[in-house]
Amino acid sequence: MELVLLSSMESKHASTAVAALRARLHSGSSEMTAAYIASQPDPNREYYRPVKDWYASLGIEMNLYLELEQGYDAQLVDRLLACDIIHLSGGDTFRFLYWLKQRELLPRLKEFALSGGGLVGLSAGAMILAPSIASAAVCGDRNDIGLQDPAGAGLMEFNLVPHLPLDDNHGWLRQADQFRPVVLLHDQDVLALQGEEWVSFGAPVWKVNESSL
């Protein structure tokens, strides 16, 4: 599988990791294409346009935007799944997962990844790929939408917490203990699954067993 887990897109490691994904997926015979799934409505494309431009700077064409709520267009799903990369945006993790489940897209995203497509998750979009999104509470997310089942796509064996502060983060680390195995990402950190190997960019904090930090 090819997964890229981002806490922020403002880090040089984010560009490096997605450029590496592009190189791993690109056959050299065609343009690389990416699609964007919005975590919540973005009618003015305020969040989408900068992401589109960022991908363009890496030589990846992003021309497909999928919204999950009132603006949902089921006819776009097949086109989305035909892209090389799907970008799962940041935002409200509980709301994002709720609507992915309402649209029955989680199994299709999992199948996309297992079939060799690249998934790039930003913050909430990265947590959705884990076994559970319950760890989103560590970085302040609340289940205001009433999501009944926090189970995510389960494409990795650990839970995830983005936006770990660089300093004064002991409270975050203690709270994350209840979600072991869990990885915490500072905003400059990235984790990438390249085939069967996890590659770290930066200094992610792994809390896997009782002795891990």
From TrEMBL:
Matches recorded under InterPro entries: Class_I_gatase-like, Peptidase_S51
This protein's UniProt keywords: Hydrolase, Protease, Serine protease
Source species, domain of life: Bacteria
Family: Belongs to the peptidase S51 family.
The name this protein goes by in its record: Type 1 glutamine amidotransferase-like domain-containing protein
Protein's organism: Shewanella corallii
